[in-house]
Amino acid sequence: MTRRRGHGEETGGRISARASFLALAALCCLSFAAVASGAGQGPRISVDEPLYDFGSVAAGTVLEHVFEIRNTGDEVLSIGKIEPS
Questions:
Q1: Which residues are CB-contacts of 62 (< 8 A; sequence separation ≥ 6)?
Q2: Spatial distance between the Cα atoms of 52 and 85, rounded to a whole number of angstroms
Q3: Where would I find the H helices in the chain?
Q4: Diameter of the chain by CA atoms?
């Protein structure tokens, strides 16, 4: 599954874009921890590049990056909600 992550309106300048991607990274880490505590059964999220840093950008700049998220487990992976922090 390919997840396209765009950032339309900047609020707070450079920190907002980075915070969005840190939130995604936190979700991935929590998912990995939940899967690692199991017996190897169930859904398993896999993200080759969980973080992406756009560097310094001007406020109002539209940013876009593609995160490839795969389920490498043996059950359905459900991602209910992603929120930037």
A1: 6, 7, 8
A2: 15
A3: 14-36
A4: 46
